[in-house]
Amino acid sequence: MKNLSEGQNIIPFSDYVQEVKHPALQQVDAYWEALRKNRLAPFRADVDPRGIEKALEYAFILERVAPGHARFRIAGMHLVTLMGMEVRGMPLATLFVPKARKPLSDTLEQVFTEPEKATLSLSAERGIGKPPIDGQLMLLPMKSDLGEISRVLGCLVSEGTTGRTPRRFHIGKISRRRIISDEKRNPATNPNALAFTETQMPYKQKGPDAMHPALRLVKSDT
Q1: What is d(CA 42, CA 117) in angstroms, rounded to the nearest whole number?
Q2: pLDDT value at position 183?
Q3: How far is 12 from 173, CA to CA, in rounded Å?
Q4: Entry's Pfam families (predicted)?
Q5: Could you give the C-alpha distances from 175 to 16, 80, 120, 201, in angstroms and in order?
Q6: Domains and CATH numbers, the chain
Q7: Are β-strands 169-178 and 11-12 bridged in parallel, bridged antiparallel, or unpaired?
Q8: Distance (Å, whole) CA 36 – CA 142
Q9: By the 8 A CB rule, do 119 and 16 touch?
């Protein structure tokens, strides 16, 4: 498969969306749409993990830290398995080979600023102890409690044997769809914000919470 880093073009969302068949991707997308209603994006605090219970293993939440860059706030066990370590606090780009990071960064920036929905087809780098893995990544924009689009609800699924970790990916195809809404782009706070935040754990930290079974939301007064 020719990788995007080697010159493959972005294709229209309508030509690719039919290939999004994994139940976890479908559930996360449907849940995000239900939360969004007719808004540009739902609020981060609107997310209840029970709404995507069957997809938690594959789900994650990103925080924008700079143009085109985001880090994991919380993530499901599937990503931990692929990387062989806790991923909270890590940049999303660390899941990708160097040549794929520019198209990834460009896509992330479109998701945050337009905003857009994005789906990427993935293939893992191969080598001794690293058998073939294909996957899909979905990125869906969300607002912080201050109303800025600075969060992403994501889902990454893959098929194949993990083998030696970490596994990093090439990008094959990228599909994007502009979100249509009557809502103004001016930030507005969420009147229904819940009193919780994600705990931030450096990705090198070890301990009993390093390999958590599913996406977790932790209540905090800070």
Answers
A1: 13
A2: 81
A3: 10
A4: PAS_5 (PF07310)
A5: 6, 25, 6, 31
A6: 4-181 (3.30.450.20)
A7: parallel
A8: 9
A9: yes
Q: How far apart are CA 40 and CA 182, in angstroms?
A: 8
Alpha carbon distance 74, 89 (integer Å): 8
CB 165: neighbour CB atoms within 10 A? 14
> Cα separation of 60 and 56, whole Å?
8
Instruction: Report the length, in residues, of the chain.
Output: 222
3-state secondary structure of 130: strand
Alpha helices (H) along the chain: 13-16, 23-36, 77-83, 101-113
3-class DSSP state of 184 = coil
Q: What's the pLDDT tens digit per position in 140-185? A: 999 999 999 999 999 999 999 999 999 999 999 999 999 988 887 6
Alpha carbon distance 194, 46 (integer Å): 8
Is 153:142 a contact under the CB 8 Å cutoff?
yes
Q: Are 151 and 200 in contact (CB under 8 A)?
A: no
Euclidean distance between CA atoms 131 and 122, whole angstroms: 14
pTM surpassing 0.70?
A: yes
CA–CA dist 99, 96 (Å, integer):
8
Question: Alpha-carbon distance 184 to 198, whole Å?
Answer: 27
Kind and range of the H or E run holding 75: strand 69-75
